[in-house]
Amino acid sequence: MYLMLRLSGLMFLCVVHAMALAGHGHDTVSDVPKTVVLAPGYRTLSYPAPQVGSYSLPSISDAFDAPYLSSLGLEGTLHDLMDGKVTILSFIYTKCEDVNGCPLAAFVMGQIQKQVKQTESVQFISYSFDIKNDTPKVLENYAQSFRNDGAKWDFLTAPNSERLENLLKQYNQTVQISDGQIYSHMLRVFLIDSKKRIRNIYSTAFLHADTITNDIETLLKEDHIALSAVMGRVPMLVEKTPLMNKDSLTNGLPNKQPYSSEKSLAELEELGRQLFFDRKLSHNGTLSCGMCHIPQQGFTSNELSTAVGIEGRTVKRNTPTLLNVSYLSSLFHDSRESKLEQQIWSPLLAHNEMGNPSVDFVVKSIEANPNYEIAFRKIFDEGITMGTIGQAFAAYQHTLIAADSPADRYLYAGDNDALSESEKNGYGIFIGKGRCSGCHLVQSNFALFTDELAHNTGVGYKKTMTNNASFFTAKIAPGIDVSYDVNYVSPSAEPPPSDLGKYEITEVPSDRWKFRTPTLRNIELTAPYMHDGSFQTLSDVVRFYNQGGFNNPLLDSLIKPLSLTEAEEKDLVSFLRSLTSSQVNRVVDRALQEFSPNSVSID
Fold first, then answer.
1. What CATH number should be reported for the domain whose range is 265-403?
2. Distances (CA, A) of 95 to 102, 184, 339
3. How far apart are CA 196 and CA 200, in angstroms?
4. Do 143 and 153 contact (CB within 8 A), yes or no?
5. Start-end ranges of CATH 1.10.760.10 in the chain?
6. What is the pLDDT of residues 75-97, one digit of tens each?
């Protein structure tokens, strides 16, 4: 009987979702995709939920207030609803067809609703951003499928589009519409305490009734509110299923279309590789891309905190890794580019990097080599142009794929033995007490380990505003450092460059000292860390975040002291090391292959 109840519960969810799809433009249930990898929230939790009261949830920020129109047609404000209660808030729309989107949020909230008996201390709010279609009547009909007797679950919408836009901006909710009715949005569910403070934010990968219930109990215990016993949790029957073969190069990365070039891809990739390692593409013929993005050093430079351009010119930022760069839509530490085809021109033309004075100078430098002229003409009718050069570089960078790490096999291929106990503990800290996943996102079926957004952690502020060190350490050769008094060289030295991060692109004051969240994939191989290479080890980085970053007036609200123990810090570092791909050696070997006799000479 117990097994039948579990089965019927899951089948009911699937049938309801299929009916919803059929009612929104699908003629038959057969139109619904047959294979859907369900998010972890539908499954049994794959790791022990943190014990209630054994951890704290630092305040992220105050919850934002906004007016609402309820499903009963009543008006009010969110702060009035939240006052004195622990609140779970999600943003939805009733026509959502993504089973791992709004339906997931409703399902998990429904499970929590069943598990928590003392409903007077906890409430749920589903706030629709589809004010055109989700009228109070529609919301009330929708709500009947989710409410239990006695539980408080409000379904709300905004009174007008202006109020809605302000609310979504405050909660960092990006909503896009296509085809006139289908919304695209990033699922984020907010845990708000009785004092109207945001204490946790859950993405798809971490939305699970067991962990959120424990978070709620922890907050109630913190407020000295007695929470009644939790009802027996009903484990989901959906097991972790492999998304792809364990040996797949892209295991753990999102599905994406192959590089969209109609040209001979193998020849284009090889041409891009030759350009990547060609020193003649710099102004004085001494520096190639591969001399900063060194294949054997994670396609970055382990020996230098910040890069060095032609003639030893200073670059103020650390060289970012190029591994898996084709999966990113935010490039450079300040997110100033979004396309690889365009990205290459920044270092080619930067005075302190490759130093070329103009696009035409680069084009003519390449045209001067007849072998390049032949290679480009073979692939492109137009020959060597700004656009075709960018395409060649991009094609090669699209081959720098390195996934299938032990963490990927554990998270996405169902291999429970892929991680050690320390690494598993570290993963629990990563998504829980350590709050790392708030910026380094992990989705239900893939992980880029970045939100691709810019944040102020205090590193840039500290270096720009408080750096009064009198001694400086310089690396003069691998393994050989020398320290010297800055006062001895300052009369003949240029002033150190200040770095205001994203502000230098947007000129928006609140963007000062914000830098893009880097991917954590292969992080063990890409030291030193941060945008300025100021931390040499992963332990240094973890300690920095454990103490709450460096305080400044624009510090990101997600950065708070973590109170990790020394053992927890070590476990977290162990997990970060488990993100190293099994494919890195393959990518490096390919990069270092000798060029064929018929290829372009780059001597």
1. 1.10.760.10
2. 9, 12, 32
3. 12
4. yes
5. 265-403, 406-467+500-585
6. 999 999 898 889 999 999 988 88
